[in-house]
User: Which sequence fits this backbone?
């Protein structure tokens, strides 16, 4: 399937910015699940400082903001040919060793709830246990927009029983690691039926199965990603793979607007 994507982020400031630095992970990489036909990232009101491949293999760019510009924009556009591989993205690559994805992060630290969830998974083959986990996370964490924020942990989302795709990916990864299976967070895009315009990018989890490599699980939708999904970046959790992140110094007040379209 050929997907056309536009992802525009705008920052509006009420006064000159003393200094700001944004980290962009907005360029999808070639792989088993997708071929990038064209892609372009345009930044307005800021200056690109450096670009590099980070420890997880993500295309990363740092852009700085300083002085008078009151509006800073980042727009990524392009077309990607996607392939349905039943969620299998293949062998592990990148500078980060596989064992790193077996360790918890502050956002995925397992508490009593996640431990109980992992303990309830019946014995069996790795892939079967992961599909069990997929169903349980979807059952126990309802998708509710605004129920959580960027700092909500896996344990907190599971305890309150609601969250968004970010929380589903964190809960799944936290429990999978307790089962002895490396897991990671994936940011990207999803073409939704009947909806072109979206307010946010998507996220899901991948687990490393010894016989298959990395396999994706989207607990928010209860499936393994298919040709409707485009992968952007991976990491241990949301903070490692978020498409746009940054810091800002000074007293300027910021307003953020995000506009995303994904269509065939």
Assistant:
């Amino acid at each position: 399937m050929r997907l056309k994507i536009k992802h525009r982020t705008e920052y509006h400031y009420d006064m000159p910015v003393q200094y700001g630095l944004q980290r962009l992970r907005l360029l999808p990489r070639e792989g088993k699940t997708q071929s990038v036909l064209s892609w372009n990232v345009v930044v307005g009101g800021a200056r690109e400082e450096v670009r590099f491949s980070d420890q997880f293999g993500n295309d990363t760019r740092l852009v700085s903001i300083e002085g008078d510009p009151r509006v800073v924009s980042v727009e990524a556009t392009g077309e990607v040919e996607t392939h349905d591989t039943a969620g299998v993205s293949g062998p592990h690559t990148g500078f980060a060793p596989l064992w790193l994805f077996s360790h918890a992060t502050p956002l995925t630290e397992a508490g009593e709830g996640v431990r109980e969830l992992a303990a309830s998974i019946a014995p069996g083959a790795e892939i079967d246990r992961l599909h069990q986990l997929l169903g349980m996370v979807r059952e126990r964490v309802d998708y509710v927009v605004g129920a959580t924020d960027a700092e909500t942990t896996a344990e907190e989302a599971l305890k309150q029983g609601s969250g968004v795709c970010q929380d589903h990916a964190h809960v799944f990864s936290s429990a999978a690691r307790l089962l002895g299976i490396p897991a990671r967070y994936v940011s990207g895009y999803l073409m939704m039926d009947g909806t072109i315009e979206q307010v946010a990018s998507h996220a899901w989890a991948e687990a490393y199965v010894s016989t298959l490599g990395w396999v994706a699980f989207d607990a928010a939708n209860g499936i393994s990603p298919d040709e409707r999904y485009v992968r952007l970046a991976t990491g241990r959790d949301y903070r490692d793979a978020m498409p746009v992140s940054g810091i800002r110094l000074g007293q300027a007040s910021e307003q953020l607007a995000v506009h995303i379209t994904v269509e065939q």
